[in-house]
Fold:
Amino acid sequence: MKTALKIITFIALAMNGLVQSVQAQSDYTYSDNGDGTCAITGYTGSDVAVTIPNMLNGLTVVSIGNNAFYYTSLTSVTIPGSITNIGSYAFEHCASLSTVAIPRSVSSIGDGTFEFCSSLDSVTIGSGVTRIGRDTFEDCTSLISITIPDSVTSIGDDAFGGCRGLTSFTVPDSVTSIGDDAFGGCTGLTSVAIANSVTSIGSYAFDYCTRLASVTIPSSVSSIGDGTFEFCSSLISITIPDSVTNIGSDVFAYCSGLTNILVDAANTFYSSTNGVLFDKNQTTLIEFPPGLGGGYTIPNMVTSVGSGAFATCTRLTSVTIPDSITNIESYAFSGCTGLTSVAIANGVTTIGDDAFATCLSLTSVMIPNSVTTIGFATFYNCMSLTSVIIGRGVTSIGSGGFEACPALASVWFQGNAPSADDSTFFGDAINVFYNTPGTTGWAKFFHGIPTAQRYLPNPQILNFEPNFGVHINQFGFVISWATNVSVVVEASMNPADQAWQPVQTNTLVNGSFYFGDSQWTNYPGRFYRVRSK
Structure:
């Protein structure tokens, strides 16, 4: 009896070994790890419903290798409890795969494992998994249900990007970071519960979540990346907790419904007034909610308009920039398609790249004398812009500064010719560039377009001109106005007493005249003014 039992057992094992051997040879390729285990490297079988064996030719199957089932016709797969690792892109482009259960034995899921599995509608992830990698479920467009176990500590870049079937998501308390684009393009997502363990939200993590109406950012979060909620058009209000120390650029760009950004009063880095986001000292305007419209006057304590601060605020019609502002950063007003007027005060010295690009309704611009630099593509594609006055302080205009402004017919430079290139005014309707008499650097053509003088409405002392000040033992300056008219230079030791005395009468030949006072050293102080004769 004992002998017979041994024989029967041997036959059963042999038969079992024979089945596994045939299956390994016909359906799977694998690599021997040299320690009694193996990794599946490929599948060549014809079955579409597959149960992965836990043994192949006496070797325990512990992992599914990179690209092992890549582009196969699987509809379902059962993963055995022997598997501890699923490699990168293992099931990528399995377009018919509808359900997956990942056992708790698995601790690691590679990048892009189920990417483009467009029929995958439900996933169960075992409690052994600690990380959901980059692109793991990207563009699983049918995915409507997934439960993330408490073992997961990070959600990688693009992990659920493009999963437009997801309507809600709960981030478990174990997760500390949400990667870049983690939920980007989840257009069906209406709500997200972010756990108190999360410390950072990556760039564009929720961009294009167009139905996302509410998000609560927990007080554990310290960093919010660039464009995190970009194109979340259903988002109305959001609160920044006191824990946040870093907010990236364009966080709320194209959030057309957002009207209120609130900041916890205890936050030491940021603040808000009337729903507008500032730094703590309110010297930098960081973000104007795109859902707000009408006119807006920037508060007087602000010195800088941050990068993209008003970008895509399509309902904004006018803005007043106070004298306190010295810098308008890149993309500050880009895409403000409803902006018809902007008053730039005399404190501004630099206007950044693309600062007013695609402001389609902007009709006229006056650049104050304080501005020295106009950046790359600053007024690019301002389709309604018809006239521009460029102040005398501007020394350079970047490539494409006023490119693709087809209605722009009039540009008046009040100062010396700035540096520019042929693309600066490319595609515009300009027939002539006007310059001010007495300024320098102007030839008959400026980048292929004729130049002509345009006279000031009143006589003016050009205090920026190179010969202004002490020159050849005298104090002098250029007077600019109109050709063949006379002006009177008057001087006073104390202008408060209105004791002005005529010093010299000059006729402005070609619109300008150089006045020199060789007696200036005879006075402890002398003031000058000009008037028409």
